UniProtKB/TrEMBL annotation:
Protein name per UniProt: Polar amino acid ABC uptake transporter substrate binding protein
UniProt keyword Transmembrane helix, yes or no: no
Transmembrane segments: none
InterPro entries recorded: Iontro_rcpt_C, Solute-binding_3/MltF_N
Keywords: Signal
Residues of the signal peptide: 1-23
Ionotropic glutamate receptor C-terminal domain mapped to chain residues: 40-259
Gene3D superfamilies cross-referenced by the UniProt entry: Periplasmic binding protein-like II
Length: 278
């Protein structure tokens, strides 16, 4: 059977197109090269999560400070690029990485199994713990166990791992998702909610600044990985390897713990000067 010339041409073009498509699929964007070529590392974060990232005044200027900020700066220095912090609501932080608007996200992000399906994560750099914050005068009288929160309102930060933990542990409660932890604290103090589920280090800061609040002894279970890690686009093998080396070095030198402690002290100092709670 003799094939007509026009059919040969179509088959040839189809073959070229298939090879081109295959090559394009197999050569995913190298995030590390992308960052180095543009000379800037864009970091997505939500600056309302002291002591990891928060706003403060330094040398008369509005500044974003915190343990995560220091880690991001070290990553930028090691890569030889400038660091640009892009602030947004927490529920948009990972979406910004997925869309390519940010190169990485470092904002107290837990590397859960579900998130790992969509993003690459570095090795963890901080082991977090989730607690339940309540009014001090209610701990002994009203809320002694999880069942006491049945039909009550509990506030969480929208998009956080604490949102999932609250829903899993306090299934009979009304979980209210808010944009910022500060909003949740205000709701608690005003009596709009009966508790707030927060990461322990963040909760401690609010307790130290609000004598009417305390951390409940009620334990909250979690089936996911609550430790914090740096998020980046899927397939960022080279960047991930580099970030892992940086994190390993910082942990070995004890610098991450120092970053958290220093940032915690700064957050308390900043909030006392401004006259507002963190």
């Amino acid at each position: 059977m003799i094939m007509k010339p026009w059919k040969k041409l179509l088959l040839g073009l189809a073959g070229i197109f298939a090879l081109t498509s295959l090559a394009a699929c197999s050569s995913s964007t190298n995030t590390l090269d992308k960052v180095k070529n543009k000379g800037t590392l864009t970091v997505a974060l939500n600056p309302h999560f002291a002591p990891f990232e928060f706003k403060t005044i330094q040398d008369g200027k509005d500044t974003i400070a915190g343990a995560d900020i220091e880690i991001a700066k070290v990553i930028g220095d090691e890569l030889g690029v400038k660091v640009k912090f892009s602030e947004m609501s927490f529920d948009n932080v990972l979406a910004s990485v997925q869309s390519g608007k940010a190169d990485i996200a470092i904002s107290g992000i837990s590397a859960t199994k579900e998130r790992q399906k969509i993003f690459d994560f570095s090795d963890t750099y901080y082991d977090s713990e989730t607690v339940l914050l309540v009014k001090k005068d209610a701990t002994e009288k009203t809320y002694k166990q999880i069942s006491d929160f049945s039909k009550k309102s509990i506030a969480v930060q929208k998009g956080s791992i604490q949102e999932n933990i609250a829903k899993a542990n306090l299934s009979d409660a009304n979980v209210v998702s808010l944009a910022q932890p500060g909003e949740a604290i205000n709701e608690l103090k005003s009596g709009q909610v009966e508790g707030v589920v927060l990461e322990k280090a963040i909760a401690k800061g609010y307790v130290d600044q609000n004598s009417d609040l305390t951390m409940s002894d009620i334990a909250l279970k979690s089936d996911s990985n609550d430790a914090y890690a740096v998020a980046m686009p899927k397939g960022s093998d080279d960047l991930k390897a580099k970030v892992n080396k940086i994190i390993a070095k910082l942990k070995k030198e004890g610098k991450i713990d120092s970053y958290v402690q220093d940032a915690y002290a700064l957050s308390l100092k900043s909030s006392s000067k401004s006259g507002v709670t963190i």
